[in-house]
Design goal:
It is a multi-pass membrane protein. With 305 residues, the protein is mostly helical. It has one domain (6-290). It contains ten helices and four strands, in the order E-E-H-H-H-H-H-E-E-H-H-H-H-H. A hairpin with a 4-residue loop joins strand 1 (2-5) and strand 2 (10-13). Helix 3 packs antiparallel against helix 8 (211-236), helix 4 (80-107) packs parallel to helix 6 (175-191) and helix 7 (196-205) crosses helix 8.
């Protein structure tokens, strides 16, 4: 069954959107991230205009994050104080990101910028995930710090304005969490990502948070920022398609619940390897789109985006 998307101005197959959002939610549930770094490229590949894909994809991120955080809250694996600081930085960053998003949209450079950023991030993160999974499979773990081990100190322990985070067992400066939140918020607004695949390593390696509270705290920050971005994009650019958003949220929530159950029985290194391979495959698609000349030199009516 086809349904017309009023903001994207195109018909889509309902079942296809539900399957794609469900699959993204499934992957998100397994690895504990929002899934925007998969959802937004998937929408772009389905022909959804970049501004609509970026702005509307945030709704699916918010839905899957809310679904995940409910489970983490019951397990008491959320550091609310840390999540609040990350969210404060993220609010400021997302406001600036939306302003930049609107500027790029007016200049007609949004599609190019989004594609280049995705190419860099997906290929880099994907390569690191595949490399770590391969070395684990070969029985040779990386010499770098494993995500399963937490070094004692980082720069966050030496900067001023330190406070205690009882849930994480930390006594660190508030400046790094605010800075990390700001960067994630800005990227989320421009690229339509939740930022979890960047936020989680940053919380482990830079803030030295224990892994048992990282995912839940990350999902709290992602929920706050993704929800804010949907509102800001609706006001500033009017590129949030509510019909598409409802379909994405419906499929994403169901997929996230299933993925969380399946992921509990898999080794984290294998899950990261599969996810890394998907990211690298997506980055190759973005690279081909950037270097291969399009069939049409221009498209009438594209100026509205």
């Amino acid at each position: 069954m086809l349904i017309y998307l009023p903001i994207a101005e195109m018909p889509v197959a309902v079942l296809l959107i539900l399957l794609v959002s469900g699959a993204v939610g499934f992957v998100s549930g397994m690895v504990g991230v929002g899934g925007g770094f998969i959802m937004t490229p998937a929408l772009l590949f389905l022909g959804v205009p970049a501004p609509v894909a970026v702005a509307t994809g945030a709704s699916q991120i918010a839905a899957t994050s809310f679904s995940g955080i409910m489970t983490r809250t019951r397990r008491k694996s959320v550091d609310w104080r840390m999540g609040l600081l990350l969210s404060i930085g993220g609010v400021v960053g997302s406001a600036g990101g939306v302003a930049l998003f609107e500027r790029l949209l007016r200049l007609g450079q949004l599609d190019l910028i989004v594609s280049v950023l995705y190419l860099i991030l997906l290929s880099g993160v994907g390569f690191l995930m595949v490399r770590e999974s391969y070395q684990f499979w070969r029985g040779r773990p990386t010499k770098s710090v494993s995500v399963l081990r937490r070094p004692v100190k980082s720069i966050a322990h030496n900067l001023p304005f330190r406070i205690r985070f009882p849930r994480s067992g930390l006594y660190i400066s508030v400046l790094p969490p605010l800075g990390i939140g700001f960067a994630i918020g800005a990227l989320s607004a421009i690229m339509g990502i939740g930022g979890g695949f960047i936020l989680i390593p940053a919380m482990i390696y830079l803030l030295r948070m224990p892994t048992n509270v990282v995912i839940g705290t990350s999902q709290f920050q992602v929920l706050v920022i993704a929800s804010l971005i949907v509102v800001l994009q609706s006001i500033a650019t009017q590129t949030v398609d509510l019909v598409l958003a409802l379909l994405l949220m419906a499929g994403g929530v169901v997929g996230a619940q299933i993925g969380a159950r399946v992921g509990a029985g898999l080794k984290a290194e294998y899950v990261r390897g599969i996810l890394g391979a998907l990211l690298m495959a997506a980055s190759i698609k973005f690279l081909l789109d950037l270097v291969i000349p399009p069939e049409e030199a221009y498209v009438l009516g594209a100026g509205m985006w």
